[in-house]
Amino acid sequence: MEKAIAIIGAGIGGLTTAMLLKQKGFEPTVYESAPSIQPVGAGIVMANNAMQVYKKAGIQHTIEQAGNKITVMKITDERLKPISVMELSKYESVYGVYNVAIHRAALQRILAEETGFENIILSKRLLRIEQNENYQLSFEDGTVAHTDVVIGADGIKSVVRKQLFNTGEIRDAQQVCWRGICEMNLSEKYQHEANELWGKGKRFGFVKISDSKVYWYAVASKWLVKENSQSLTELLNEFHPEVLAMINATPQENIFISDITDLEPISTWAKDKACLLGDAAHATTPNMGQGACQAVEDAYTIAQLLGAGKEIKDAFASYEKRRIKKAHDIVKRSWSVGKISHIENGALIWLRNIAMKSLPGSANNKLLDKIFDISNLG
Ligand SMILES: Cc1cc2nc3c(=O)[nH]c(=O)nc-3n(C[C@H](O)[C@H](O)[C@H](O)COP(=O)(O)OP(=O)(O)OC[C@H]3O[C@@H](n4cnc5c(N)ncnc54)[C@H](O)[C@@H]3O)c2cc1C
């Protein structure tokens, strides 16, 4: 008899896993706590490595059409003068996919449609998971389900991780993040660029996600925010006028504020017939724009291994082995980038920027070569 597979969480990680498993002939059930698949109103960049997976899944063009292709990533100073420029054309021609900036809701809608809404059960918040001869899932609404296999894709505060793996410390990066989407006609030169502007202990990023929509985020060291009870435009008033225009063009109620956190790397993602993926396994600070992309790599690896007919336990153990180093390298590097980007001392900022400008392009390329390479996943 076919084994029952439960995926907890309908985020990008859970839905991508469900879609890929369905393509391999499995019939997973996704349990999602929210009453609808409505992620925070923000954008996201799905980088080349994730888009390679979506190409294999046959949804590359659907995602590209719903979003915007990004061909250059830039780090600049607060007046938009470049510090570091990463050209992506090499990877576009090698892998046949672009980095795509897209509204989170649009991406999750595509993934949910591919998964099939009949396979996603909403308003099912997992409260308790117990392992006997199979797994018993108890939900907030008083219902209970049994499953042979559990995939915990329930985010950084994962109940599956806490209860089955008994681990996971969430770290506070001491930075606050604002996210918003505005309607705006961006200057022609920014149409296919992702820009991040670094100031003193604060930064601002923006990218076009569709014909008329621009997604932006601001990040500031917590102490700056605590000491200043000023508005976001006042906090960023030395930034380029385009920055202030984007914030002003965003209705206040559509700006989301959150702390920047991550999960201290954990050594076990798989145990018997259960595993963790995405933020539940390796939540990272967003400084490399790779959190969701790494979840997509997890999903692909699991689907490949299960699809090859491996025993569940062996498949999950192999998944952990194939994925853990890269995911943890990103968590660690991203944490450091968060610190470097928030230097506040003027002389150190000057030195940092000089050092970054003088880095040969090959240094950035080496990093992207590694991140975009998914050849070891199976
Ligand atoms: C500011 C910011 C910017 C980012 N930008 C990027 C980017 O550009 N590119 C990128 O790749 N990544 C980015 N990330 C990271 C990315 O958002 C996450 O890594 C990704 O969304 C993780 O997906 P996930 O499916 O693992 O978890 P989540 O998105 O957290 O999904 C978990 C799901 O599980 C559900 N759930 C939780 N608990 C339960 C429960 N008990 N029972 C049932 N359901 C439950 C939740 O409702 C949710 O739907 C960014 C993150 C932040 C904070």
Describe the secondary structure blueprint for this structure.
Blueprint: E1 5-8, H1 12-23, E2 29-31, E3 43-46, H2 48-56, H3 60-66, E4 68-70, E5 72-77, E6 82-87, H4 89-95, E7 99-103, H5 104-115, E8 120-121, E9 126-131, E10 135-139, E11 144-147, E12 149-152, H6 159-165, E13 170-183, E14 193-198, E15 202-208, E16 213-221, H7 222-227, H8 232-235, H9 241-248, E17 256-263, E18 270-271, E19 274-276, H10 279-282, H11 291-307, H12 312-341, H13 346-358, H14 361-372
Parallel strand pairs: 1-2, 1-12, 2-8, 5-14, 12-19
Antiparallel strand pairs: 3-7, 4-7, 5-6, 9-10, 10-11, 13-16, 13-17, 14-15, 15-16, 18-19
Helix pairs in contact: 1-5, 1-11, 2-11, 11-12
Explain the overall architecture.
The chain has a domain at 5-46 and 104-170 and 265-377: 3-Layer(bba) Sandwich (FAD/NAD(P)-binding domain). It has 14 helices and 19 strands. With 378 residues, the protein is an alpha/beta fold. The radius of gyration is 21 Å and the shape is globular. Helices cover 39% and strands 27% of the residues. The protein binds flavin-adenine dinucleotide (FAD). Flavin-adenine dinucleotide (FAD) binds next to helix 1, strand 3, strand 13, helix 10 and helix 11.
